[in-house]
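Cross-check.
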Amino acid sequence: MATTTNYGWVTPDDISLVKDGASAIRTLGTSIDTTTFNNASAAIAKTIVDAKGDIIVATASDTVSRLAIGANDTVLTADSAQATGLKWATPASGGMTLISTTTLSGTSTTLSSIPQTYNSLFLIITGMTYVSGDNKFQMLINNTNNTDLMQIFNGTAGAATDTFINLSAGDNMLRTNTTNVFSIGINNYTSSSSYKTLDLTGTWVNTASTRRTQWCGGVFKSNTAITSLVFNVEGTIAFNGGTILLYGVK
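Predicted model, tokenized:
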């Protein structure tokens, strides 16, 4: 007797005379029914997943389970302590995570309760404008007016005061210009045993309508971890707008 190619179901030969057609059909039907049932039993049911992004993982030999989708920006990570051997986790290194988006307003804007779970901080500040008056744009660390800051211009200590970082290099910014932008990197900010270095790049238009740019560095000469940053304009001038993006860097 002939058999089918994949499952080996018994069928009549091409030249056979079928004496008992009903029996032959019943035999073939039984074979199909058995194979279909066994295959269905071994299949992974679609009901194992519940939501967009769920994945199916092995928990043991010939055993599968559902792993629910993780939070945004997390990555799939091997972890033998988990029942599935996998978990969703924040990237362990090299990642940059947006911590907060803050609008500049009032006479000062504070970024407080900065998480202490990253290696470095990175800030992008755009579109800062003032309500009235053209003056200097400044950043204060930990809201402490002391002598723990040193700003470096071309290798020389350049700030007239050590109480804040002078983002506009002592230059008065044109208060209505929205193209002013700064980026600031703060390294080792969680350390309670060493100083912290800063890197700054900025460009702005001054009161003479001249485009100014600076690349400089700084040092927070303190063993205290950085937990807050304050931005203001010299002379207690109020902000009219602007945005601070604060990122944590692993």
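The radius of gyration is 33 Å. The longest strand covers residues 120-130. Passed to J.P. for a second look.
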